[in-house]
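Journal club side-thread
Mid-discussion, someone asked how the predicted structure for our own chain would compare to the paper's figures. Pasting it here so we can look after the session.
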Amino acid sequence: MSFVITAKRGGVAVCFVAILGASSPAVAHESSRTGVRVWTTNSDKTLHVRDTAPDKNDVYGRMTRQGVSGIPTLRNSNGYKSEAVRDYSEKILSVQACVDDFGGDTCAPWD
């Protein structure tokens, strides 16, 4: 829902616009490169991995989580425009987007 309030002050019309309603979930951490986008939502407890290129390469997101050792991954092997989503009980502290390229993986910087 949105509404506009117009007031006249000193011969000048002043317009205020307010937009109310559900907002999109805030993205806390995000990492991307050609072919993949990885981001968190839900107070950093949900990880999303989207394949953004029609190249037949798998993509995955790496993460560090509070109280969890190592660097777990969430893989998306479902192709272009698909998205893998997983909820975690621990807070995600950082993410990295990677493409499973032939001969080695290509990863974006950590966020």
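Post-session note: Residues 6 and 83 are 44 Å apart (CA to CA).
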